[in-house]
Design brief:
heterodimer; A: 302 residues; alpha/beta; Aldehyde Dehydrogenase, Chain A, domain 1; 5-stranded parallel beta sheet; 3-stranded antiparallel beta sheet; 11 helices; 10 strands; 17% strand; elongated; B: 479 residues; Aldehyde Dehydrogenase, Chain A, domain 2; 2 domains; 6-stranded mixed beta sheet; 15 helices; globular; Ald_DH_C (chain B); Ald_DH_CS_CYS (chain B); Aldehyde_DH_dom (chain B); oxidoreductase (chain B)
Chain lengths: 302, 479
């Protein structure tokens, strides 16, 4: 080991495809599991939250209008970029969650594989949850899933990276845009993920990552009239209830914190097969009718 | 209306097919019982203001009793083989078909809507809904929600007065098919068809407590949705109440579906078949006196054909027959209640006060009952109250546009997102516009079509969850 002084990274937010500091100028100290200083992370303000919503809304038309195939390609590209920076994330996750190097590596591998899983879902979910409806009349009738819009995501507090990826990927796979609040005490893997997203062809604003106090950032998002849905995974019971009440103001779609499998433990929970639940939570169903006419109604045999 | 070639001789449907008792109780645990506090309320015919019956009024204590009955019934009902639950629902569907004329007349009397609609729309759809979900009861493993999807428990359901029996069917059929038990509160102005449904449950031999019917007011609805032993809340009604429910269930495990208000845009492009579009516009806003959450209450017409279209529309409105809802030729029936009439009147007056131009066909309103003439507003801007607020009455606001982009922007410029209509002969334009509309149901070259296989529900503040089709099962399953 040389005694070269390392170059530290200034961790910054990821909003609208750019890397701003918090407009408030505030930071907070992030430590590893043993309390050793790792970095200062931006302490986002309500204004940062509102700026992120504006960016997410602006990106929604393009992202939701992109072909599912294109979205799949981009999500797969995220996995590719992560694979190349695997060592960095193993180090960050090990520091953030106090894991051994091998355990952290398993977590990062699972997170990369999760992007691949959701990359494949983009052009399949529509067939699985949509389809033609056999109405009793001369009508073509088709139901298709569509993204809800801008989704505020409270990432899990414990699983700083695999948990984060597990809640974020399904939101954007289906064409929504996201404002993510990273784990409060372990925000660094999330901020580094922003750097990966920026180099993975994800259009700016599709994912916006904020760090700071979850309750402080989540309150304005839950009350925001231009946010369509909120994932409360990272909220404790009291905060989740308060945010759900605020979310009722414009009838946001709310995904409540899911009960964690007590036996497997909170960390293990994120390794389970995610199913389609997180994909469907932020999808609307649109049903389109059109008359078919009635060719052959007079008894033709074709 | 003055003498026109369209004047018809009276053709009333016979009332004798339905026998309304002078009083009804609450239907709890398979029996009709009085309210705990003995309260009753009268239900009137909106077309004549005649009192039809006196009905027990549920309070919080009755809600508790009904939820307990439903909880008790849940154990056995949910454990029944799906095929057996299915047969109960098939029985109910068949009895509804047998009694459909009686129920149609009853619904017309209690609600005020034309017999033509209850007979040809409401009742066929009610029977079809039970028939459809009956078939799901033993096929839930194949519905795409994993093996053995479990029911939630007791469903607390609150329904509106605009399609009383149809909304009951939308709520009860999927709930029972999936193995839940039900406490349902019909609206205070239209309790009768739900009470007749209780009798149908008796005829079908449905086990006690599986379906409980609690006529009452908003306080009973609030007590029901707030009840700690209710696992599922399903509400159809106003957005304001929907939001209150969303707040009320915050922090609980209750699963919720909300089907709320709308301000549907009916978009007519310059290449639309005008006569068909006019029929669709009329269906869109005057079906059920416009008291429809998915009504096409905003007409967006391309500027180049605005004049021609409005001329045709006004000509068509002049032929609508308003009057006795039991008359088979009636197009426009009564408004459901004095309160609703007052709300429609106030909003229409606001439209005028804000500068929109009001037009109605010459139309004589009956001297008793609650009536509102078909009304059309032109010179409406997006800022006008009548272009933003749900009127829930026979009032159409006309706006114009020049380009498809402008049409989409205006159509989506609303807090709601329930329905929309598109009229054009160009297929690619239909698909492009339908794709951009933020609405749960889009009718292209048609309007106000419903089917049990077709999911229904809104975007944005029109609520969440879907009723109908495979999608409608999810609301009642623990998935």
């Amino acid at each position: 080991m040389s005694d070269r002084l390392t170059v530290l990274k200034t961790y910054k937010l990821y909003v609208g495809g750019k890397f701003p500091r918090s407009e408030s100028g505030r930071v907070y100290e992030v430590t590893d599991a043993k309390g050793k200083w790792l970095a200062n992370a931006p302490l986002s303000s309500r204004k940062d939250a509102r700026d992120a919503v504006v960016a997410a809304r602006k990106a929604f038309g393009g992202w939701s209008g992109a072909t599912a195939y294109n979205r799949g390609q981009i999500l797969y590209r995220i996995a590719e970029m992560l694979e190349g920076r695997r060592d960095q994330f193993v180090r960050e996750v090990a520091d953030a969650e106090g894991l051994s190097k091998s355990k952290a590596a398993a977590v990062v591998d699972a997170a990369i594989d999760r992007w691949v899983w959701y990359a494949g879902w983009t052009d399949k979910i529509g067939q699985v949850v949509g389809g033609a409806n056999p109405v009793a009349g001369p009508y073509f009738n088709l139901s298709s899933p569509e993204p809800t819009g801008v989704v505020a995501v409270l990432a899990p507090q414990e699983s700083s990276f695999l948990g984060l990826v597990s809640v974020l990927a399904p939101v954007i796979a289906t064409g929504n845009t996201a404002v993510v609040i990273a784990s409060e005490k372990a925000p660094l893997p999330a901020l580094s993920l922003g750097e990966v997203l920026a180099t993975s062809d994800v259009p700016g604003g599709v994912v916006n990552i904020l760090t700071g106090k979850t309750a402080e950032i989540a309150a304005p998002l839950a009350a925001h009239q231009d946010v369509n849905a909120i994932d409360l995974t990272g909220a404790d019971a009291d905060l989740a209830r308060d945010l759900e009440i605020a979310a009722a103001d414009n009838l946001k779609r709310v995904l409540r914190p899911q009960p964690v499998d007590a036996e497997a433990g909170p960390a293990a929970d994120w390794t389970a097969d995610p199913g389609t639940r997180r994909l469907t939570a932020f999808l609307e169903t649109k049903t389109v009718w059109h008359p078919t006419g009635s060719l052959g109604a007079s008894g033709s045999a074709y | 209306m003055t003498s026109t070639p369209f004047e018809y001789a009276p053709a009333p449907e016979s009332r004798s097919v339905v026998d309304i008792a002078p009083s009804y109780g609450l239907f709890i645990d398979g029996e009709f019982v009085d309210a705990a506090d003995g309260k009753v309320f009268k239900t009137v015919s909106p077309s004549t203001e005649e009192v039809l019956s006196e009905v027990a009024q549920a309070g919080a204590e009755d809600v508790d009793r009904a939820v307990k009955a439903a909880r008790k019934a849940f154990e056995k009902w949910s454990a029944l083989p799906g095929a057996e639950r299915a047969k109960y629902l098939f029985r109910i569907a068949r009895i509804i078909q047998e009694r459909s004329r009686e129920l149609a007349v009853l619904e017309t009397l209690d609600n005020g809507k034309p017999i033509k609609e209850t007979r040809d729309a409401d009742l066929p759809l009610v029977a079809a809904h039970f028939f459809y979900y009956a078939g799901w009861a033993d096929k839930l493993d194949h519905a795409g929600y994993g093996p053995n999807p479990a029911p939630l428990g007791v469903a607390g359901q609150v329904i509106p007065w605009n399609f009383p029996l149809l909304m009951l069917a939308w709520k009860i059929a999927p709930a029972l098919a999936t193995g839940n038990t039900v406490v349902l509160k019909p609206a205070e102005t239209t309790p009768l068809s739900a009470l007749f449904f209780a009798d149908i449950c008796r005829q079908a031999g449905l086990p006690r407590g599986v379906v409980n019917i609690l006529p009452g007011y908003g306080d009973a609805g609030a007590a029901l949705t707030a009840h700690p032993d209710v696992n599922k809340v399903a509400f159809t009604g106003s957005t304001a109440v929907g939001k209150a429910i969303a707040r009320q269930v915050a922090g609980t495990d209750k699963k919720v579906t909300l089907e709320l208000g709308g301000k549907g845009a009916n978009i007519v492009f310059d290449d639309a078949p005008i006569d068909q579009a006019v029929e669709g516009i009329v269906t869109g806003i005057f079906f059920n006196q416009g008291q429809v959450c998915c009504a096409g209450s905003r007409l967006l017409v391309q500027e180049s054909i605005q004049e021609e279209l409005l001329d045709s529309l006004k000509r068509r409105l002049s032929t609508l027959r308003l009057g006795d809802p039991l008359d088979k030729n009636t197009d426009i029936g009564a408004i459901n209640s004095a309160e609703q009439l007052a709300r429609i009147t106030a909003l229409a007056d606001t439209g005028e006060a804000e500068g929109a131009e009001r037009w109605s066909p010459s139309c004589e309103l009956p001297s008793t009952g609650y009536w509102f003439a078909p009304t059309l507003f032109t010179n409406v801007t997006q800022a006008h109250t009548i272009a933003r607020d749900e009127i829930f009455g026979p009032v159409l606001s006309v706006l114009s546009f020049r380009t498809p982009d402008e049409a989409v922007a205006k159509a989506n410029n609303t807090q709601y997102g329930l329905s929309a209509g598109i009229w054009t002969e160009k297929g690619s334009r239909i698909l492009a516009v339908a794709n951009k509309l933020r609405a749960g149901v889009v009718w292209a070259n048609t309007f106000n079509k419903f089917d049990p296989t077709s999911p229904f529900g809104g975007y944005k503040e029109s609520g969440y969850g879907r009723e109908g089709g495979r999608h409608g099962l999810e609301a009642y399953l623990d998935v």
